[in-house]
Amino acid sequence: MERFGFVGLPNAGKSSLYNALAGGGALAAPYAFATIDPNVGVAKVPDPRLDRLAAMSKSRNVVHASVQFVDIAGLVKGAASGEGLGNRFLSHIREVDAIVYVLRAFDDADVPGSADPVDQLEVLEVELVIADVEKVESQIDKRRKAARADPSLADEVAALDHALSVLQSGTPIYRSDLSPEERALLRQQFLLTDKAVLAVVNIGEADIGDEERIAAPVVAALGGADVVPVCVQLEAEAVLLDDAERAEMLEALGLGDGALAKFLRAAYHRLGLRTFLTTGEKESRAWTFRAGAKAPQAAGVIHTDFERGFIRAECIRWDELLELGSWAAARDAGRLRVEGKDYEVQDGDVLEFRFNV
Ligand SMILES: Nc1nc2c(ncn2[C@@H]2O[C@H](COP(=O)(O)OP(=O)(O)OP(=O)(O)O)[C@@H](O)[C@H]2O)c(=O)[nH]1
Ligand SMILES: [Mg+2]
After folding, report:
1. What separation in Å is there between the alpha carbon of 101 and the centre of ligand 1?
2. Most Cβ neighbours (<10 Å): which of 43, 69, 125, 178?
3. Element (H, E) at 262
4. What separation in Å is there between the alpha carbon of 194 and the centre of ligand 2?
């Protein structure tokens, strides 16, 4: 399963965010390094399309897509050279597929630390960039030597050179001008800043309603990344309530289905993950595939036999199906498309596979 990791200064609210997503379990405390070993959790990705299809089919079982998230220890200035929890912490970041910066914007006299999210982002990026510079420097001569014997490695060396100059100017790879081809050549280095990135701006309760203004400087600093303002404390409290109470509380605050739902959807998307759906009386389910996958690969998510023996897929968009009322009605109306092995599955497709093994 794909994972994203929370990266932030001590007391930014990483463990509180973890608790909000996992329903508790992590120590959240107003002192630095409350977290030492990472907490790993799983969250289901809210999907109103799935809920509506399940209602249509009167499904006995509903299965959401899910993602894994890791609450990592706080990072401090100098971490790349061993300050705080140093390298131990960096190795935990290396293992995740995407980074979620948790940036504190709430004021609380009882909780030490900066409440300026852009300042924090800078500290975090500098540490990750320094670690990457060291990594590339340690590899580049070896690869250059190898390229002398094997000229096919020249492109990789060029990519490392480019990466090094970008990193040395203080720019993380994720917002550099490195091409997708260069990034592919760098993948085996597992650089910390060569990952997908999102940010959660942890706002105070008093700032609900003013999220956009507070998040704006982070949006500007991160360029294209998803930035989701969340009042983490409140979401962590809300998750402990039952569904009705929770909905009422979020409604009263004007938070809709909650900032967490928005965050999870953004994280899922940023990881390159997409959803196709299956629906029936027994079960409605959201299945995860990688953007760009063809029909047989998507079938393989359900079962390897489906991929191996793939014949064709019957397909309709979720909202069209909903409008028609049932799979049988869609078939009768001639609205089920028949797709072959070259079909690129789209987010929100409802599929049934024909296979033969
Ligand atoms: N007032 C307020 N306090 C918060 C908020 N979010 C977190 N806190 C408090 O801030 C303190 C630190 O939160 P944690 O979630 O433990 O922070 P962390 O980022 O995991 O910290 P480390 O594990 O030390 O790196 C806790 O006492 C939380 O209750 C918030 O939105 N508002
Ligand atoms: Mg913590």
Report:
1. 14
2. 69
3. helix 259-270
4. 24
CA of 257 to the centre of ligand 1 (A): 23
Which residues make Cβ contacts (< 8 Å) with residue 180, sequence separation at least 6?
none
From CA 52, how far away is CA 285, in angstroms rounded? Answer: 11
- Cβ–Cβ < 8 Å for 218, 104: no
Give the span between the Cα atoms of 117 and 225, in whole angstroms: 15
Per-residue pLDDT tens for 61-120? 999 998 889 988 787 777 666 666 566 678 888 889 999 999 999 988 888 888 999 999
Q: For residue range 146-184, list pLDDT tens digits in order.
A: 999 998 999 999 999 999 999 999 999 999 999 999 999
Tokens 């050279």 label which residue?
A: 81
pTM of the model: 0.88
Ligand 1 atom with the shortest distance to the CA of 202: 31
Cβ partners under 8 Å of residue 334, min gap 6: none
| Pocket of ligand 1, beta carbon within 6 A | 8, 10-16, 28-30, 32-35, 73-74, 106, 108, 111, 202, 204, 231-233
How many angstroms does the Cα of residue 256 sit away from the middle of ligand 2?
27
Strand-pair partners of 98: 4, 196
Look-up: residue for tokens 């990519």?
Answer: 159
Q: What single string gives the DSSP state of each residue in 62-118? A: EE--EEEEEEPPP--TTGGGT-TTHHHHHHHHHT-SEEEEEEE----TTS-S---HH
